[in-house]
Design a protein that fits this description.
The chain has helices spanning 8-34, 37-56, 61-68, 78-109, 118-143, 147-170, 177-203, 217-236, 239-249, 252-269, 273-292, 296-331, 342-365, 375-393, 395-419, 428-449, 455-476, 481-485, 494-498, and strands spanning 479-480, 503-504. It is an all-alpha fold. Helix 2 runs parallel beside helix 7 (177-203), helix 2 (37-56) packs across helix 9 (239-249) and helix 13 (342-365) runs parallel beside helix 15. One of its GO terms (cellular component) is plasma membrane.
């Protein structure tokens, strides 16, 4: 059976995400300009706790959403899926609230933090919980093919939040972290209500089949547990954990700079090719593997995602290496330009994260589940090493530790996959060549940027570096036609024609 190409739903999804990206980046710029470092550190801490809870108490729910809800009305009755939606949301909110309260009390008892004033604490809790709910509801809408509703909800929310923050900043009334969190909670709540109502309407529709068996919850628990253990390994040295460590060990100014860089890069990460396309690619290639038992589409589809992601993230690494200080000085009004060197490291980390996510999809598809829990030991060892080194070396430990841990986990998962015959998720010759090109141009650009001054010269040098990068990519042609075929793209497909110069037989 020929694999189906991406549909117009994907175009709706991508267009909405790209618009939202621009709006959320503008939101970050307004926030970093409005708040002084101490207030921005409070906002960054709340955002870091949200990111920590998003993974730490996920219980594999995101994987259940992505794997189960698309089957509503066909393999699972809409009525059963409708009952599952509020149950998953309630579990997430309850677990997050309990973890938030217990963690705060324990940290205060140990003297790690001082409990915030009631108003600030309530605003932070509301902001964290509403953000978690909104992300889960959006994932549910995507799983149910409500791409248009999702696009409208996300774009309108980001636009309203930006307008409100900009107006308050313009009149000088935006100076506190609590104001940022209150406005964000308000707009996110409206977006969540819009998504929930659309999901409820969708699941009230009639089933497409009459012979649907009752929902078996045991496979859901097994899937959730394996996904949760894999996420726990990633989470141990993840950006939110590194941010919390930075809040404890770093001074206010470097912590605020590190937090700003993390917030901006993590916002970008949600819109990298792998993050955008994986929700569409994963169900298709896993379903195809389960039906046919052939590994080719699974391997080639994930390999293509990894390469496209590397091409895009590599461009970001080169730009920030060449003129990062100039750009950060402009965005932050001169506050954090001295810390622009953190951006290439953070971008490199999110590149390794997309590879790990692709490996995770392949591992769960071919039945590697219980073995994923062994990865947690590696990550815990890396975290212990970071805790020992950060008092002596500071910020550089927070940048290098996640990359080192990710590399170790990728090597371990790669060995597990090789034992089951999965060997082409990473096209090693092409990926190695891409890494060498990116590293070489970035290193040269970084050295040159230290020797020249003036915005026109730096921008011209950055443009020259990007032209060299594009020329190298065109000469290398890292993509392969069999990888494009994994998406159901023939040689005449418009997406295939778009990236034809980068592909080879």
């Amino acid at each position: 059976m020929r694999p189906a190409p991406m549909t117009s739903n994907a175009a709706i999804f991508l267009s909405g995400r790209l618009v939202t990206l621009v709006l959320l980046m503008a939101v970050q710029v307004v926030i970093v300009r409005a708040l002084d470092p101490s207030q921005y550190a409070l906002y960054a801490l709340a955002f870091g706790i949200f990111a920590l809870l998003q993974v730490g108490v996920s219980f594999g729910i995101p994987k259940v959403i992505a794997q189960v809800l698309p089957r509503a009305g066909w393999d699972i009755r809409n009525r059963a899926a409708a009952r599952l939606v509020p149950a998953l949301i309630a579990l997430r909110v309850l677990a997050s609230a309990v973890a938030l309260l217990a963690g705060s009390m324990v940290a205060a008892a140990l003297g790690w933090i001082a409990l915030p004033p009631l108003a600030l604490g309530a605003a932070a809790c509301l902001f964290i919980l509403v953000t978690i709910v909104q992300i889960d509801l959006d994932a549910m809408a995507q799983a149910l093919r409500l791409q248009r509703t999702s696009r409208n909800a996300l774009v309108v929310e980001a636009l309203v939040r930006l307008v409100l923050l900009f107006l308050l900043y313009g009149v000088g009334r935006l100076t506190l972290a609590i104001e940022i969190m209150a406005i964000s909670s308000f707009t996110l709540s409206g977006s969540s209500i819009m998504l929930f109502l659309a999901i409820r309407r969708r699941l009230r529709e009639a089933d497409q089949r009459d012979d649907i068996a009752p929902l078996d919850r045991q496979p859901l628990r097994s899937m959730a547990w394996s996904a949760y253990m894999s996420s726990a390994a990633w989470f141990t040295t993840s950006p939110p954990v590194m941010r919390l460590m930075g809040g404890y060990f770093l001074a206010i100014h470097p912590f605020a700079a590190f937090s700003f860089a993390q917030a901006l890069v993590l916002s970008i990460q949600r819109f990298t090719p792998a993050s955008l396309l994986l929700p569409f690619v994963e169900p298709a290639i896993v379903r195809d593997y389960n039906r046919s038992g052939e590994l080719s589409r699974l391997e080639h589809g994930l390999s293509l995602l990894i390469k496209i992601d590397m091409l895009v993230i590599g461009a970001g690494v080169i730009v920030t290496s060449c003129c990062g200080t100039l750009l950060v000085d402009w965005v932050t009004a001169g506050k954090y330009g001295d810390y622009a060197f953190v951006f290439p490291f953070l971008l490199l980390y999110i590149g390794t994260n997309s590879v790990y996510r692709s490996f995770e999809v392949a591992a769960i598809a071919v039945g590697i589940r219980s073995q994923l829990s062994a990865l947690l030991a590696t990550s815990l060892a890396a975290l212990g090493l970071a805790l020992a080194l950060i008092p002596h070396f500071g910020l550089i430990v927070l940048l290098l530790c996640p990359i080192f841990d990710a590399a170790c986990r990728l090597l371990l998962v790669d060995r597990l996959l090789h034992r089951l015959g999965v060997r082409k998720v990473v096209d090693l010759p092409m990926v190695g060549a891409l890494v060498a090109i990116i590293a070489g141009i970035s290193a040269f650009g970084f050295e040159m940027s230290a020797m020249v001054t003036g915005a026109p010269i730096l921008l011209g040098m950055t443009l020259a570096a990007m032209i060299a990068y594009l020329a190298c990519a065109l000469a290398l042609r890292p993509l392969r036609w069999r990888e494009l075929a994994a998406f159901g793209w023939s040689a005449d497909h418009r997406m295939a024609r778009l990236i034809r110069p980068l592909a080879r037989p």
